[in-house]
Specification:
The protein contains 14 helices and 19 strands. A hairpin with a 4-residue loop joins strand 5 and strand 6. Helices cover 28% and strands 22% of the residues. Helix 8 (227-240) crosses helix 11 (335-346).
């Protein structure tokens, strides 16, 4: 879609309304400002509005609407699909809006839309409190929350979106609203799992829970030859695990020279990672079976602070690496599914790629679609397929591996996906309708009400019918 030509005078009037910076292609900081975490994404916006608060967001949305500019919204973190930046249009950049305020008495935390989970954990852990985040600390709060939020506390305290108390946002008509159980209830329903379709979120309020500072953790590595047998044992473990335990398995080459000697460095491996959210000594006992499924190559299980555990994978996902991730909810871990998971983990063209199995269930299943829009509570497991690589010359091979794996694994799924691992949204319409099922039309009705012109289209998009 061709973008309109914006007169200099219009841009100057817009810039004069902002407290933050307006960055143009000729500015020295432009290339840094347009760069996002995923090195595959190389887009050139017309303008980048680096907002300092809700008033700047209101002005930016109004300017984009009046000039008919394409809009991308950038929060604080990863955005693996690359929708945080756009060609020719306006990027509404919240990355400097990182304020966090904890109310330890009410056990709530208010978080600005550009914050990361490291920002939240730093403040909340000062009071021995946490809300469910992701599994990498520099993930942005906004994107993770609006897409659901699957993290280390999920089986005990649910998804990130399940812990929302209220949301502040700017709608497509530049109106500032608060959505909660008490006001704009239908919008609040849709924001919890319906993605960034309904506005630019400038603030989130979350419920907090007593977690840490120390937690019992599991991080044990096994040889890839044991993957099928361990997944079978893991399935039995998960069936009876307490809700305080949340775990995942990731399988690939995992070539970490600091962890493994030369004899196994380039051999297939997998890890079981997880934590127990409450009593440390009880947690150590509950996690112990995960360390005994086979002969470990390395075992770093034990006790650490919750904040440190949230950071443990950060170095594995550096800025500028090339990423392509997709997902499927699995009906279970049958022997056939396990065999195919082992096959695809071994077939990865990049040694940095992994096939991941996330334990779900527990408290996640206590919330119904009538309470919030998130889809996927029916599934006992999530399959994540992560292509991570460095060389642009093997882009096609890595993307093809992910897509072929997902096409094969659909035999063990109803086809619904976790919207935070969506690839590049090539099959967006089918993906959204399949994932949301019977609730999709309810989300379309919300889109019709709050964004009938689809101003916020660069996301896991729900298209309006108006």
């Amino acid at each position: 879609m061709a973008q309109p030509t914006i007169e200099d005078e219009e841009i100057e009037r817009f810039e004069a309304t902002l407290h933050g910076d307006l960055i143009r292609p000729d500015d020295a900081e432009y290339d840094d400002a347009r760069a996002v975490w995923n090195g595959m994404i190389d887009k050139y916006p017309e303008l980048i509005a680096r907002c300092r608060g809700a008033a700047d967001v209101i002005q930016a949305v109004e300017f984009a609407r009046e000039t008919d500019l394409r809009v991308a919204v950038r929060g604080g973190g990863h955005n693996v699909a690359g929708t945080a930046v756009c060609e020719d249009g306006l990027v509404i950049d919240l990355s400097e809006m990182r304020g966090v305020r904890v109310d330890p008495d009410e056990r709530t935390v208010w978080v600005q839309g550009g914050a990361t989970w490291a920002d939240v954990d730093y403040e909340s852990q000062a009071f021995g409190l946490a809300t469910p985040g992701g599994v990498v600390s520099d993930t942005g709060v906004a994107g993770l929350t609006l897409g659901g939020g699957i993290g280390h506390l999920r089986c005990k305290y649910g998804l990130t979106c399940d812990n929302l108390v209220s949301v502040d946002l700017v709608t497509a008509d530049s109106e500032f609203l608060t959505a909660s159980e008490e006001e704009n209830e239908e919008l609040f329903w849709g924001l919890r799992g319906g993605g960034g379709n309904f506005g630019v979120v400038t603030g989130f309020e979350f419920e907090l829970h007593p977690v840490g500072p120390d937690v019992a953790t599991c991080l044990v590595f096994y040889h890839g030859d044991d993957l099928a047998d361990v997944l079978s044992a893991y399935r039995e473990y998960v069936d009876s695990a307490p809700r305080e335990v949340s775990t995942l398995i990731f399988a690939g080459e995992l070539p970490d020279e600091e962890l493994f000697d030369a004899g196994v460095l380039h051999e297939p491996k997998f890890a079981i990672m997880g934590c127990h959210s409450e009593d440390v000594e009880v947690g150590k006992g509950e996690l112990a079976p995960l360390r005994e499924f086979a002969d470990p190559l390395a075992d770093f299980s034990g006790t650490m602070t919750y904040a440190d555990f949230q950071r443990i994978l950060d170095e594995d996902y550096p800025d500028g690496l090339r990423y392509y991730w997709k997902s499927l909810y699995l009906d279970g871990l049958s022997e056939s599914a396990i065999d195919r998971i082992a096959y695809w983990a071994d077939a990865a063209p990049s040694p940095l790629s992994t096939v991941d199995v996330w334990q779900l269930g527990g408290t996640i299943t206590d919330v119904g679609v009538e309470e919030n829009a998130f889809a996927g509570r029916h599934a006992p497991y999530l399959l994540g397929v992560e292509a991570n690589w460095e060389d642009p010359q093997i882009d096609d091979a890595n993307v093809e591996w992910v897509r072929d794996c997902l096409a094969d694994m659909r035999q063990f799924s109803d086809g619904s996906v976790y919207l935070n691992f969506p690839g590049f949204l090539k099959d967006n319409d089918e993906m959204m309708e399949t994932t949301f099922g019977s609730t999709y039309e309810r989300l379309v009705a919300l889109k019709n009400e709050y964004d009938p012109m689809n101003l916020f289209s660069l996301n896991q998009n729900i298209k309006p019918t108006t």
